[in-house]
Write a sequence for this structure.
């Protein structure tokens, strides 16, 4: 199989997983250079307490470390920006901490930095970032008034999916960001962000349209902007998701 066809197969599998989850991949293994098996099993110990069909809360526990004592995002960034807890620290160009209002009521969380993010040190730039800005504008949010971050802070080689060990090392930083920002709402962008944050293996199709809760923060799920660029026909579903997200935000403000 030629190089171009292999890349097309890999992207198609990623897109199928984005909507249908891991069930399609239980007996499929795709490997090419740094691309790993798309099946991701999250190993972090997280207790999930059922609340209702459409909502549940997540309780997390991490070993106490110095960064957990900080009182501001700037202090946190300075303390962790040279992190080498996983091999991605050796291959990154720039540490991608996060960007936005430190007192934001809304957080958007993706999976990992890409090539543009690794070069600029900021999440969601390039074509996917522009599309995300347009989505935010359409529901009357400015990029500057929300906070944008990822599950992991360093780019996986070849833009492959982050693996469990990488997420396990890095996600405590994200939880600390959430603790400091204290958002009212979180929008997960893509299956990996949603599955990791909510500790679930459900497909994106089953997660979309529902309202979840983490430590009294409302959480919703939609497509990753990069997936929308590859599959424009998913934009209609994304538009429905973000309209619901905005309505929930307005209801909470009232």
């Amino acid at each position: 199989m030629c190089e171009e066809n292999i890349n097309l197969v890999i992207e198609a599998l990623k897109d199928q997983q984005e909507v249908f989850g891991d069930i399609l991949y239980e007996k499929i293994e795709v490997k090419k250079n740094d691309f790993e098996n798309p099946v991701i099993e999250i190993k972090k110990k997280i207790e999930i307490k059922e609340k209702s069909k459409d909502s549940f809360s997540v309780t997390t526990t991490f070993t106490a470390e110095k960064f957990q004592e900080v009182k501001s995002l700037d202090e946190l960034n300075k303390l962790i920006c040279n992190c080498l807890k996983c091999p991605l620290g050796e291959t990154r160009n720039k540490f991608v901490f996060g960007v936005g209002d430190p007192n934001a009521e809304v957080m958007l969380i993706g999976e990992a930095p890409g090539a543009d993010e690794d070069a600029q040190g900021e999440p969601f730039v390039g074509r996917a970032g522009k599309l995300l800005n347009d989505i935010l504008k359409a529901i009357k949010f400015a990029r500057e008034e929300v906070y944008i971050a990822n599950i992991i802070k360093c780019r996986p080689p070849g833009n492959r999916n982050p693996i469990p060990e990488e997420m396990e090392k890095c996600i405590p930083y994200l939880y600390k960001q959430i603790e400091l920002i204290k958002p009212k709402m979180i929008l997960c962008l893509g299956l990996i962000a949603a599955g990791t944050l909510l500790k679930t293996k459900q497909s994106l199709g089953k997660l979309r349209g529902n309202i979840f809760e983490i430590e009294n923060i409302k959480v919703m799920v939609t497509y990753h902007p990069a997936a929308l660029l590859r599959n424009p026909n998913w934009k209609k579903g994304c538009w429905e998701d973000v309209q619901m997200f905005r309505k929930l935000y307005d209801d909470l403000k009232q």
About this structure: DSSP finds ten helices and eight strands in the chain. The longest helix spans residues 235-253. Strands lie at 46-52, 55-60, 99-100, 106-110, 147-150, 185-189, 212-214, 217-222. The two ends are 57 Å apart (CA to CA).
